[in-house]
Amino acid sequence: MSLKKTLLFISFSLISLISYSQNAQKHEVMPGETLYSLGRRYNVTVDALKKANNLSSDAIKAGQLLIIPSSSSTPTVQQQNSVNQSNTPSNTVSNPSVAEVTSPSAPQSTSRTIEVQIPRCKLTYITEKKTTVAEICVKFGISENEFILSNPEIKKFKIKKGTSICIPYTESERSALIKAEAAAQAEAQRKQEESERALREAEIASRRLEKINVSVILPFELSHERKSQEAIKMIDFYEGMLLAIDDLQSKGANVELQVYDEQETPIDSILSLLSQHPCHLIIGAKNIDNINALRSYSKRNNIILAVPFSSKEDLTVGHPNLFQVNMKSSLLYDQVYKTFTEENRDAHVLFVTCPRTDDNNYIKGFERYLSEHNISHSTIDADDLSKASSLSASGKRVVLIPSDKSVETFKKIISTLDGYESRISSNISLFGYPEWQTFSVENTNKLRLYHCSFYTTFYADLSSDDVLSFTSRFKKRFNRDQYNSRPLYGLLGYDVTNYFIGGLHKYGTAFIDNQDAMKTESLQNPMLFERNYSSRQNGFTNHNIRIIHP
Q1: Rounded Cα distance, 37 and 199, in Å
Q2: 487 with 524: CB under 8 angstroms?
Q3: How many helices (H) and strands (E) does the chain have?
Q4: How many whole angstroms separate alpha carbon 38 and alpha carbon 62?
Q5: Interatomic CA distance for residues 65 and 411, integer angstroms
Q6: Is 345 helix (H, G, I), strand (E, B) or coil?
Q7: How far apart are CA 381 and CA 237, in angstroms?
Q8: pTM of the complete model
Q9: What Å distances lie between residue 321 and 45, 302, 306, CA to CA?
Q10: Residue 173: exposed, middle, or buried by beta-carbon count in 10 A (0-12, 13-18, 19+)?
Q11: Which of 218, 367, 360, 357 is nearest to 285 (CA)?
């Protein structure tokens, strides 16, 4: 009795693979580093860092040696799809081939690899009579090479009756399957993200505020006929706020301001007035004792507190609704080192020792970071830059980092560079400090001439259209220019208002939950807030730092 031809359709599925590297590295904690900043740097979670180092809290300290676990890839979504002909048994095929594609329809933010597992056999064919490999290839439209790869156990080209043959997918069939599954998975992902986005938007809409009540507490010296420089800056800050509120109101925001002069009114009286006029946001104060009083009041009443000026360390600890705009520079050094290194891997760094050193910890930390990342560097004296000259003459790009931020030291170094031939000086630049923004036009021109740069948490391009427009609006509205300082306090008030009041306008009472998604264009002071020590018990500090190339 002859065997009937049987077609066995084999199911195929999408699988998710998670690969973990077993390699780990060690890191010595530098001043200002947190588990969160290290997590971002090494692409691992805070929980993974804590687990690898047996930490019971988020607190770490300078000099501590941490194990950095390897990061893991995000698994793809597992889906099953099987097709079987009715009344025919399924068959398990070993050694499946795996095709890997990237979904073309997936959004950039969630781009992922789709791994499609295609079985070795499209179907199994039982020969009814003696036949040849060539005849089978013609019958099923496959090449002899495809046949041999799928049937390595068949050594002869003549095949006897009753032999079980694996019929593979052709390359075009494989390609079609991969594209179809990738498109289907991408579409499913798109629909899921669209649904989640709609739910988020509905949640945000339900928490929007009809009116945003804001209290501003700063030392304005309103009763003084002749005001101090500090008071003038505070008034600039407030007037910058007013210009930002004008812009927000044109977008539909309804804002009510309560303004208090902490120079004229005791903080206890201000707190009493605050209790009579409940608010969603407090901006201030300047005096540290008043800030501490506001910390307690705003925490007790679940009010967002934005502190624009104080850089006091650990101000946000224990206050989950507090935002510290002005962070202590030393806590951001690690970010300075990292950004600088990314830009100057091919350079030789020369630390210029000056008679006065502004922050020895900054220089020592810098040297250690460059050593850890294999960036060539050495130290020279400010009175002898000959090593910089010889390195530059050999074709090496040189970056000088003086230990003193003063204009006198800058001019001394520049005076030496001015004496070099252009072929030598053109390979030398300086990396400096935020204070270099205050240089005169002559020295600023030298910054540009030698392609110098500096790190800073604030910077305003005074020639940009946006800043020029703000400056014009400020003068027209208040009949005067901003006080000439760095930072410019009118711009600071504008940026702070856009971020916090703009955020409350967009997200309402869900502002804190969505502050990671906040994207505001700044004129001078970008906002990039992170929870202090990555703990939800603590508030947020502004980790924005940039390297400026004037």
Answers
A1: 31
A2: yes
A3: 17, 23
A4: 13
A5: 40
A6: coil
A7: 42
A8: 0.67
A9: 23, 7, 9
A10: middle
A11: 218
**What parts of the chain have a pLDDT lower than 50?**
1-23, 72-110
Return the SS3 of 15.
Answer: coil
Of residues 1, 23, 46, 19, the one with CA closest to residue 162: 1
**Over the stretch 189-202, which tens digit does the pLDDT of each residue have?**
888 888 888 887 77
Record the tokens describing residue 298, joined without a space. Answer: 């705003």
Residue reference for tokens 């002909």: 85
One-letter amino acid of 520 = T
Cβ(224)–Cβ(236) under 8 Å? no
Which helix (H) or strand (E) covers residue 444, if one does? helix 441-449
Sign of the CA dihedral with 135 first, then 138, 140, and 141 last: positive
Instruction: Give strand ranges (E) for 317-452.
Output: 322-324, 348-353, 377-381, 398-402, 428-432
Q: In angstroms, rounded to a whole number, what is the distance separating the alpha carbons of residues 170 and 142?
A: 6
Q: How far is CA 540 from the centre of its chain?
A: 15
Query: What is the Cα–Cα distance from 235 to 128, expressed in whole angstroms?
Result: 96
Name the β-bridge partners of 455: 547
pLDDT of residue 487: 95
Question: Between vectors from CA 513 to CA 218 and to CA 203, what angle results, nearest 5°?
Answer: 120
119 neighbors 93 (Cβ within 8 angstroms)? yes
Establish how many alpha carbons lie within 13 A of residue 269's alpha carbon, considering only the half-sphere containing its beta carbon.
7
Q: Position of tokens 């264009």?
A: 521
Query: Which pLDDT value is given to residue 53?
Result: 86
Give the C-alpha separation, 399 to 395, whole Å: 13
How much is the pLDDT for 101?
A: 45
Q: Using CA atoms, how far apart are residues 147 and 9, in angstroms rounded to an integer?
A: 17
Residue type (1 letter), 539: G
> What is the rounded CA–CA span in Å between residue 209 and residue 76?
38
Q: What distance in Å separates the CA atoms of residue 331 and residue 62, rounded to the nearest whole number? A: 11
> Which tokens sit at 521?
């264009």
Between CA 73 and CA 83 the distance in angstroms is 30
Instruction: Name the percent of the chain in helix, strand, coil, to the closest 5.
Output: 40, 20, 40
The residue with tokens 């009949």 is 479
212-218 and 255-261 strand pairing: parallel
Those residues whose C-beta lies under 8 Å from the C-beta of residue 21, and which sit 6 or more positions away, are 70, 71
pLDDT at 97: 38
Q: CA 458, CA 487: separation in Å to the nearest integer? A: 7
Cis peptide before 285 (omega within 30 of 0): yes
Cα separation, 139 vs 217, whole angstroms: 86
Nearest of 271, 270, 361, 286 to residue 326 by alpha carbon: 286
Which stretches of 77-150 are DSSP H helices? 133-140, 144-150
pLDDT tens digit string along 44-93? 877 788 888 888 777 787 778 888 887 543 323 233 332 233 333 333 23
Distance CA 540, CA 529 (A): 6
Quick check: 168 and 146 in contact, CB under 8 A? yes
The amino acid sitting at 248 is: L
